[in-house]
UniProtKB/TrEMBL annotation:
This is Fasciclin-like arabinogalactan protein 11. GO terms for biological process: plant-type secondary cell wall biogenesis. Keywords: Cell membrane, Glycoprotein, GPI-anchor, Lipoprotein, Membrane, Proteoglycan, Signal. The lineage of its organism: Eukaryota, Viridiplantae, Streptophyta, Embryophyta, Tracheophyta. It comes from Morella rubra. Its main location: membrane. InterPro entries: FAS1_dom_sf (IPR036378), FAS1_domain (IPR000782), FLA_A (IPR045003).
Length: 244
């Protein structure tokens, strides 16, 4: 009798278990399980094969996923379509160094989550992952009118095409042009940039008329010489004193 009811009970349990697993199966998880994967989102959306390739080759895709997992500020990503890349002048991508490719992709990424309505209140230039937003570097400006959002790098103007994905942490927007940053694609103004002018400063040193960094180097050299001299004379004095 007990044996029988145990047997029945186990059948019932098996049946319930079977029902619950088969019932659970058809309901798809509302969000992709695990950490957000930008590549996966773009793959699902289609028409982003070139961007996906660049995200992989530059490793920016991994950085993005890591950042999404680690930070609370979120990410806004302007995703250029394959069409946008194929509209570039031939050889544009191939002409870039690996570092420039990284910067190009990072220029499309803002280190904060922005909904379409959030764009109305951002102040220009907005900061991108590529860094410096001064003119000639990586400035990106946003203008809005209602739900229309325009983005400009100064070299490229485009309108945000639509929302590919948004979850209050990550926003991916379609753009139909690649945003070309000034730092890479605009000829540099002949400003007195400190870094490239250094070799010139060295040649100027010989004319000895520039109160540049070289002067301080010479001065410190002189200081160490005099110190050396003082030490020498102290040494001589000590030796002289000892020999007396
Ligand atoms: C993200 O998704 C892509 C494509 O589905 C896959 O190749 C990659 O391994 C995933 N990355 C992680 C960290 O899960
Ligand atoms: C995501 O962050 C959590 C806690 O901050 C950490 O335990 C986990 O390893 C991270 N996952 C990845 C894929 O980096
Ligand atoms: C955005 O760009 C389009 C096309 O150039 C233009 O017609 C529109 O006025 C711009 N809107 C804003 C808010 O700048
Ligand atoms: C971006 O906006 C700033 C501030 O309004 C402005 O000074 C700058 O010229 C703009 N740059 C571009 C590329 O539109
Ligand atoms: C972008 O838009 C601005 C303002 O509407 C315009 O002055 C500029 O010529 C445009 N630039 C390009 C490259 O289309």
């Amino acid at each position: 009798m007990i044996k029988q009811s145990l047997f029945a009970l186990s059948f019932l349990l098996l049946f319930v278990f079977h029902c619950s697993t088969t019932l659970a199966q058809p309901a798809p998880a509302p969000a992709p399980p695990g950490p957000t994967n930008v590549t996966k989102i773009l793959e699902k959306a289609g028409q982003y094969t070139i961007l996906i390739r660049l995200l992989k080759s530059t490793k920016v895709g991994d950085q993005l996923n890591q950042q999404l997992n680690d930070s609370n500020n979120g990410i806004t990503f302007f995703a250029p379509t394959d069409n946008a890349f194929s509209n570039l002048k031939a050889g544009t991508l191939n002409g870039l160094t690996d570092e420039q490719k990284v910067e190009l992709i990072q220029f499309h990424i803002l280190p904060t989550f922005l909904s379409i309505s959030n764009f109305q209140t951002v102040s220009n230039p907005v900061r991108t992952q590529a860094g410096d937003s001064r003119p000639g570097e990586f400035p990106l400006n946003v203008t809005t009118s209602g739900n229309q959002v325009n983005v400009t790098s100064g070299l490229v103007n485009t309108t945000v095409g639509g929302t590919v994905y948004s979850d209050n942490q990550l926003a991916v927007y379609q753009v139909d042009s690649v945003l070309l940053p000034q730092d890479i694609f605009a000829p540099k103004p002949p400003a007195p940039a400190p870094a490239p002018s250094q070799p010139k400063a060295k040649t100027k040193k010989k004319t000895a008329d520039s109160p540049s960094g070289d002067a301080t180097v010479d001065a410190s050299g002189a200081v160490s010489l005099t110190r050396h001299g003082i030490l020498m004379s102290i040494g001589v004095a000590v030796i002289a004193g000892l020999s007396l």
